[in-house]
Design goal:
Blueprint lengths: L17 H14 L12 H8 L3 H13 L3 E4 L3 E4 L5 E4 L6 H8 L3 E11 L16 E10 L2 E10 L15 H6 L5 E12 L2 H7 L6 E11 L4 E10 L3 E4 L1
Helix pairs in contact: 1-3, 2-3
């Protein structure tokens, strides 16, 4: 396994503690699958020699990654990359990402990239929203156990401007439900795409990595268009039932 020359990865003049620098490097290597899920990471001694740091530094880095759920230790066997749960979404029903993660017991968090009015809107599955001179667009990254897995862009008709005054780090459907609005049915288009530079950075994958592209038109319980959605999804963490 070629993990490169790590001597420049850790800097004693960097204000960031050495153990956190080491944790960052190992976290990056794991996401690049230099250490695949289920594999054993190098021993403490090997990491000490490779990065020219103390055993205390190595142990603190490994403990940090274990707290994040990335690594797990097996007594007498070593430290291994934890097998990440594969998320499964059933396209035969309208389920929020929050519901999918909650069902598997994983921790969900959201990073809001932007939220505001745009004009003109970009068409998605349904071109109905292009009838509006402007609309609401909400771009977010969804993370499971701290790992980015979905980059989503949701577009709503201007009647849903109230969303811009809400906390958008949780479930949008939960916010809508407080106003008596619920998703009823959906149209889906699922295809394969490849990560451009911006998508790769936001999803923490290599540029050109294969992603799943899910485009949707979601309708409310009255059959009216609720929103469109364009999601770029890491295929290594998601499967779909159709």
């Amino acid at each position: 396994m070629n993990t490169g020359d790590f001597s420049a990865a850790l800097s004693k003049v960097n204000a960031r503690p050495l153990y956190r620098q080491l944790a960052d490097q190992l976290r990056s290597d794991i996401r690049l699958e230099l250490y695949p899920a289920g594999s054993r990471v190098p021993t403490e001694g090997a990491l000490c020699r490779r990065y020219q740091v103390s055993r205390v530094t190595v142990r603190k880095a490994l403990a940090l990654l274990a707290e994040e759920g990335i690594l797990e230790s097996h007594q007498g066997k070593g430290t291994f990359v934890r097998e990440a749960p594969r998320l499964q979404r059933d396209l035969r029903s309208v389920n929020s990402f929050h519901t999918v993660c909650s069902g598997l017991g994983v921790s969900l968090s959201t990073r809001v990239l932007s939220a505001g009015m745009i004009s003109p809107p970009a068409p998605c599955v349904s071109e109905t929203l292009t009838d509006y001179p402007e609309m609401i667009e909400i771009r977010r990254v969804r993370l499971c156990d701290g790992e980015p897995v979905v980059l989503e862009t949701n577009q709503f008709p201007p009647d849903y401007r109230f969303l811009l005054e809400e906390d958008l780090t949780g479930s949008l459907y939960a916010l809508l439900k407080t106003r008596g609005i619920e998703p009823g049915q959906a149209e889906h288009e699922l295809s394969l795409c490849y990560a451009a530079e911006n998508e790769a950075e936001l999803l923490d994958v290599a540029r050109g990595s294969a992603l799943l592209c899910l485009e949707e038109a979601i309708y409310d319980q009255q059959g009216r268009l609720l929103h469109t959605s364009c999601q770029h999804i890491r295929g290594d963490r998601f499967t779909f039932r159709i």
